[in-house]
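From the methods appendix. Each design record in this collection lists the tokenized structure first, followed by the designed amino acid sequence. Records were kept in a plain field format so they could be parsed without special tools. The example shown here is representative of the layout used throughout.

RECORD:
FOLD TOKENS (188 positions):
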């Protein structure tokens, strides 16, 4: 066998083996660019466009579903001192609601079943980056029942007397009833 043929054969085998092995860093991701200036003030009568509000205005959402976690990252036009994020997650077997907040006492994130029953789960993380205007939270897939796929949605809310909201996957504010969900994001 010529040296060149042997090198080609070894390279081909190496590529095929590399493709066949499960990658620990692989994740199926869903990325969505949300239009800027689609924030609404919300009350019991509905929503009113508030394009000048930057602190609730999500411009990008990214969901990464790996073997170990579902990680959600939000980019906003500006990041408020106090914020709330709400997440909906649908799996083949269950539905969940996540609730995150940042106040003077820190950043927190909790998870419950859609029924409202809290899910006790170690390893949930939440953080913000004030300079990059980002919010990130990660939920271990074990907390979700290790699903093969998820559909996920997320929205941001800021304000006290007047609430401003934006659904990351919807043009034009947020719905009081539900968040817009992504297509299926398979586990990587």
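DESIGN:
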């Amino acid at each position: 066998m010529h040296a060149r043929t042997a090198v080609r054969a070894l390279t081909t085998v190496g590529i095929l083996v590399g493709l066949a092995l499960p990658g620990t860093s692989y994740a199926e991701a869903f990325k969505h660019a949300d239009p800027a200036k689609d924030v609404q003030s919300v009350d019991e009568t509905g929503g009113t466009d508030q394009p000048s509000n930057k602190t609730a205005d999500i411009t990008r959402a990214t969901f990464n579903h790996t073997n170990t976690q579902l990680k959600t990252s939000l980019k906003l036009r500006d990041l408020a001192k106090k914020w709330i994020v709400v997440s909906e997650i649908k799996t083949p077997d269950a539905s969940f609601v996540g609730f995150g907040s940042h106040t003077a006492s820190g950043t927190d994130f909790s998870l419950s079943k859609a029924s409202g029953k809290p899910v006790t789960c170690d390893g949930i993380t939440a953080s913000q980056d004030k300079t990059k205007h980002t919010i990130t939270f990660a939920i271990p897939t074990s907390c979700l029942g290790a699903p093969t796929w998820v559909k996920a949605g997320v929205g941001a809310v800021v304000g006290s007397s007047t609430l401003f909201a934006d659904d990351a996957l919807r043009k034009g504010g947020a719905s009081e009833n539900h968040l817009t969900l992504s297509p299926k994001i398979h586990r990587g």
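APPENDIX NOTE: The radius of gyration is 20 Å.
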